[in-house]
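Sequence in, structure out. Go.
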Amino acid sequence: MAGCRAYAEAVVAGKARPHLCAPAGAGAAAQIAEAIGVEAVALQPMVARIGCAGGTGIAVKQAEYFGIRDCRTAVAINAEEKLCRYACLGFGTCAEVCPFGAITMDESDLPVVDLEKCTGCGICVRECPKNIIFLAPRSKQTYVRCVSHDKARAVKEACEVGCIACKLCEKECPEGAITVTDFLAGIDYEKCNDCGNCVLVCPNGTIWNARKEKEREAEVVSKGGSASV
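Output:
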């Protein structure tokens, strides 16, 4: 349904549940449910995650795009700068459409999500023409930063951090939360406990876990290295 008004009317008419508005949160959903006399449904907080780490200098460029700096426009005319056909275009359409200012573009032309501002509304997911943004439980820190279904050879030629379907993550996950399907690793968040084993064995750094990365940086610093390594 289009817009807040249409959703509100559908809730009042009993055609929609009051927990579907992510920005309002669980508290508002419970209040609405009480007001209209229906059972409140628990709302699992979600957050936007970026399923691509192939920014400038990481993903191989095959051409230069000089058109309108809008991802949707570029896709409409098949303007692909990067060799990886699945990669983020880096034009920042997701940042422009986010109503909460939760997305910014970094120095490598990749979107970065501010978890403090993100409400999990899903607008960026809907507007991304490359389908590299997805919603995941806010409580989980582990996610795959690649959406390519190409075979390993093609991935290696196009990007330094793409998933090569080596299945090491699948083998090392104690909960069976990761499976490699169609040459891409995927996480079952019902099973994932954020242990970070997959992060440690991933040869390309395709799988990310903020806690594990901080631990790894701390270990490098303690050994006299640089946290930026």
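Check: The radius of gyration is 20 Å. The first strand starts at residue 46 and ends at 50.
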